[in-house]
Task: structure prediction
Amino acid sequence: MEWLGENWQTVAALAVVALTVTIFALKLARPTKKSGSGCGEGCGCDAKSLQEAGKK
Amino acid sequence: MSEFGEHTLLPKVALVGHPNVGKTTLFNALTGKNRKVGNYPGVTVERSSATLRTPHGHELELLDLPGAYSLSPNSPDETVTRDVLLGDLADEPAPDLVICVVDAASLERHLYFVLQVIDTGIPVVIALNQIDRAENKGLRINRQVLADELEVPVIACQAPAGRGIIQLKQTLRFPFPPPTPRHWKGPGAVEKAIEKLRKKLEEAGIERAQAHAIHLLADTDYRIEAQSHLTPEAQVAAREMASECIAKDHPPEDEITEARFLCIRRTISASVIEKGSEAESLSDKIDRYTLHPFWGWVIFGAVMFAVFWSIFRFAAIPMDLIEKGFGAMASGVSSLLPEGDLRDLISKGVIEGVGSVVIFLPQIVLLFLFIGLLEGSGYMARAAFLMDKVMSRAGLTGKSFLPLLSGFACAIPGVMAARTINSAKERLLTILILPWMSCSARLPVYFLLIPLLVAGSLAQTMVMFLMYALGTGTALLAAWILGKRIGRSEPTPQFLLELPPYRLPDFGYVLRHVLGRALSFLKKAGTVILGIVIILWALSSYPKAPEGEDQLAHSVMGRIGQAIEPVVEPLGWDGRMGGAMLTSFAAREVFNGSMAVTFAVDEDAEEDDDAVRDKIRERISTAKKEDGSPRYPPLTIFSLLIFYIYALQCLPTTIVVKNETRSWRWALGQLAGMSAFAYVAALAVYQGGKLMGF
Result:
């Protein structure tokens, strides 16, 4: 990492932050797939399985 | 008969029955799907189906219809069941066969619904579920006689044990049995009316004319309310026929009901032998205490208290292990990397931020484990029964209990479960107050802050209990107040609840459910919360402060905190707490991460190997104002807790409320109202406490 000089940690940390912001921005910009469950299926409820069963 | 379903082109078999009769368990047993099995009514809300293969290799679509007590509907989900069976739904052709699930121990009560289903003209198979319970109750059901009386196959089942499943699948062979003729006969005037109406409906090109003719005469509401699939002429004809019958002193509703009950009495006396029916079952004996007007509440309070106490008591060991694990990770990073931003990001941002949330996994797992066990044992249905009385005082019924109980896990499935409530007003009230049930996202915040208020697991349990009681109590009070202002007054809705027998919970199901919750929690910590703490670390670490200046005060986060400080200062908070509160509008748990990151940045770098949770608590409790007094006295912590009980910091909930109420007005009004209430309540607590000398 010598080619980056003393600030290589700052550059690496900022790169991680920039990547995180980009991922969030892409997620926000992407047209949302309509999820009937509404909860984003992250809360651990059964909405997703009910949804999938309903589609069959 | 069969269009074999536009959806799947497969023959369609529908599963119907009273709520809580074990339909969903049977559905899972038949299809192998792992679906939620509750002990209280109304678990089936949405259309749910799965493909089923019979022992003969045929594929079928099995449709799990919402639970219904009657085909004369009393709620939106019962209306769906009626409409599907009558073939009245545009995108849902009537099923080719119906499996009618009945509780063998309460056969007489279920047979009216069976007769209504038979009258739809669809072939019926009866699944005599919970046959073990009937046998324990001293009921001997002669299945052959029952099958002969009703002219339908009758299969005895015990769905949780897998008993009768193969036999039930055997009855689904092709060709399906022909429709069963109806078994009751009304007086001449009613029979003539049915026949005349059937002919008129056939002439009008209405499908399933016989079923519609019977239903039009048997159900006044169906005859009067506009039905999109029936011509106005058909309804006019039905009203004329009904008037003719009434003129002859034979009101068709009463006569048809009476004829069906006569048929039920005949069938029961021929097929059921009661021996020792007076003997009290074990469930009945237990219910004498659990449903007692006084002891019932004592037991309810003791059970809930034991749950919360156990959470604080037994989660300590795994929490310490997780804490040590995160501490070791932070130490490892510190020893591997020289001092610098990347080391700070990993140890103070990622490890402390994510660790401050993940640390509470054992408590969340224990809470869901206990809820699952109480649900699986049958106790939750008793709790709903007890709560009905309290809820009626707030203008709600026990029907709101299931959605409100779901709200303790997550408000979103709770809001969706409110669809089972038949009264529109009660449904809206339930949705509006539901976010005040303390959901699992609040738990990490409670678990972080409560030990700052009191020490010892007993005292902490009491405060935790108070948090839940405050949220629930205020919610019911709000329902009572709002109920007088929203909509027109309605008669108190009826609450029907079947109490399942006490039984050993399905441990496999409970553990799978708990595992699902734990994985969801970890997924959220590893994605959304990880991302947010990385951004928060950057906001707290840049721009860099000149030598000798306070880094946090100089950072973006510090400046946001300073900007918000005048707003939150009356609540006893400072800018750091205000900033952390703002970030938790993304997800409540982020509060812990924000506090961990901002406090870590604020302190020197020599404490990396300390335990994450204790480190945040220590920094909060030792922080001082310029005059040397504690920066965060207990009153400030209490004001913060009060804010978290009441604030609606969950955007997905607002969107689901908008979808369910079909109105942004209610959704945004709820968001604004709850946020304002949270602020005012926290303000009142802090300022009131100060006035009282705390």
Residues 1-8, 36-45, 604-610 of chain B have pLDDT under 50 and may be disordered. The beta strands of chain B are 12-17, 48-53, 59-64, 97-103, 124-129, 139-141, 154-156, 272-274.
